[in-house]
Design goal:
Layout: E1 24-25, E2 44-48, H1 63-68, E3 76-78, E4 84-86, E5 89-95, E6 99-104, H2 117-129, E7 142-146, E8 151-156, H3 163-166, E9 196-202, E10 206-211, E11 224-229, H4 233-241, E12 247-248, H5 253-256, E13 264-277, H6 287-296, H7 300-306, E14 311-313, E15 345-351, H8 356-370, E16 374-380, H9 386-390, E17 396-402, H10 410-418, H11 432-442, H12 447-463, E18 467-479, E19 487-488
Parallel strand pairs: 2-11, 2-12, 15-16, 15-17
Antiparallel strand pairs: 1-19, 3-4, 5-6, 6-8, 7-8, 9-10, 10-11, 12-18, 13-17, 13-18, 14-18
């Protein structure tokens, strides 16, 4: 059995507040505070769809909870074009094939300590030693050390042309020494660098955050955040309608029409909902049956009917929000001829944290049954499904995957999800041609050529029929009329920034 890393995808999502201007906001001028310009704006009431699953560990799915609430940040961030942009590092340069030097800005940890090269190096070292390793470090060995005044020097075992992108991952957030105790648990409370500091965490129910007044990017306009973790999408929408919330993330499409047009924000994202077919065991070990399943699906219905227009028909691993992909996409490579199903029983699973997914799975079930398969459907909360999915316990799995969440590098999601040693290979795909194409892409530094190579690898992955893209999602954020400056991030890493206020 393969060794699997824990996923980083499904929790909600940091682009550091520095980058808030690069994405669409909830409206308004960020220069004034919510309380008439005195800088002591009202607290924000925010509902997130996914509760903490790993005690707010920065190395797992909870990393994006921390980034979306403005708690943590890394050396770099992503800009609107998906390129690495400054965050705690003001600039960087490459010194040979394996060494990068990052120049730090003047910044302070929430516990009062200075963000020094030694502190940054220590934080990154903890991340490299974590078990399981953060997804952003999949297949990468690196070491970090202080390299002089304000300089962090990072050395990789092999040349890594996209290291600045990799370091934008929420799972590589920089924390102070106090976050790392004697136990294996990492505690971000009071030890991060973002504009909001966690002050109270009530299990999987709620959290309280106060503004961090010494934030290097300037004081946030909201005085704090009262966050609630509400897995039920209808409940999130209802709480927004009744005035209990200021911001509700991931409003279900079925609830969108019940919100006033002024309170809906829909954003094209890099998230694709796909059907993953287990290529290593069960009926779909047979490529011919995978081809039959793919051929049985009418993917046009998902964007039009299930997502009610808040999505685009599945075209590949990358969707329309990855703007360069469409012009570079090539036909699938190596597809097998479809075989006629012989009444094979398929264990299909999905999760209900994203309320559209059970409906997607029901449509998939109906279409597969029409083609001659017998389908058993399992729907659970994601945390109760994850381990079985990673262990290949299901024949098919409906998954919503943000393709650029972990690193911003288009090749990284292919390596993690579809190679033999991939840490998030729910499809259990192990194909030498795919591995070779991904490995070739990983070696390319030039951006355009790396994109070309990623698309060549995608063609082989799609050709395996281990993944059938169904729909490219638009995410709906509910924003009260009184709120301005919400960060609408296609990478789903950011939600609240320094300019978010009411």
């Amino acid at each position: 059995m393969r060794s699997h890393r824990r996923p980083r995808l499904l929790a909600p999502f940091l682009l550091v507040p520095l980058m808030a201007g690069c994405f669409a906001s909830g409206g308004g001028d960020d220069s004034a505070s919510g309380d008439g310009g005195d800088g002591d704006g009202a607290r924000l009431r925010v509902a997130l769809a996914f509760p903490p699953a790993e005690n707010l560990s920065p190395y797992g799915a909870d990393a994006t909870l921390l980034s979306r609430l403005g708690v943590t940040e890394g050396l770099t961030s992503l800009d609107a074009n998906g390129s690495a942009a400054p965050a705690l590092a003001e600039s960087w340069r490459r010194d040979g094939d394996r060494i990068w030097e990052f120049s730090l800005r003047d910044a302070t940890f929430q516990d009062g300590g200075e963000v020094t090269p030694a502190a940054v190096a220590a934080s990154l070292t903890h991340a490299t030693d974590a078990e399981p390793a953060p997804a952003a470090l999949a297949g990468v060995t690196l070491s970090a050390e202080a390299g002089g005044d304000r300089i962090v020097r990072i050395t990789t075992a092999e040349p890594d042309p996209v290291l600045p992108l990799r370091l934008s991952s929420p799972s590589l957030a920089i924390l102070s020494k106090g976050a790392y105790g004697k136990s294996d648990r990492v505690d971000p409370v009071g030890h991060a660098t973002g504009p909001f500091e966690l002050t109270e965490v009530n299990g999987a129910t709620s959290a309280a955050l106060d503004r961090f007044d010494d934030y290097w990017g300037g004081r946030a306009q909201a005085s704090g955040i009262d966050a609630r973790f509400i897995a039920d999408g209808t409940a999130r929408a209802n709480a927004l309608r009744t005035g209990e919330l200021d911001i509700a993330e991931a409003v279900p499409v079925a609830q969108a029409a019940s919100l006033d047009e002024e309170t809906r924000r829909d954003t094209a994202t890099t998230r694709t909902t796909s059907l993953l077919l287990n290529a290593s065991s069960g009926p779909f070990k047979d490529a011919g049956l995978r081809a039959a399943a793919r051929g049985a699906l009418d993917t046009s219905v998902f964007a039009k009917d299930v997502y009610e227009g808040y999505g685009d028909p599945g075209a590949g691993v990358y969707g329309p929000a990855v703007t360069w992909a469409e012009g570079k996409r090539t036909p699938p490579v190596g597809r097998a001829a479809a075989k006629k199903p012989g009444g094979d029983t398929i264990d299909l699973a999905t999760y209900d944290n994203r309320p559209e997914l059970p409906e997607v799975a029901q449509v998939v079930k109906q279409q597969l049954e029409k083609a001659g398969f017998t389908v058993k459907l399992t729907v659970r909360e994601y945390s109760r499904l994850e381990a079985d999915a990673l262990d290949g316990k299901f024949d098919a799995f409906v998954l919503a995957r943000n393709t650029l969440l972990d690193t911003g590098d288009p090749v990284a999601v292919l390596a993690g999800d579809y190679t033999c040693d991939g840490g998030f290979n729910i499809a259990q795909l192990c194909d030498k041609g795919v591995d070779r194409a991904v490995a070739d892409a990983e070696q390319i530094a030039d951006t355009a050529k790396r994109q070309d190579a990623a698309m060549a690898a995608e063609a082989r992955i799609i050709g395996s029929d281990a993944v059938v893209p169904l729909v490219h999602q638009r995410i709906i954020t509910g924003v009260a009329d009184s709120v301005q400056g919400v960060v609408l991030d296609p990478y789903e890493r950011a939600l609240v920034g320094t300019g978010t206020r009411r």
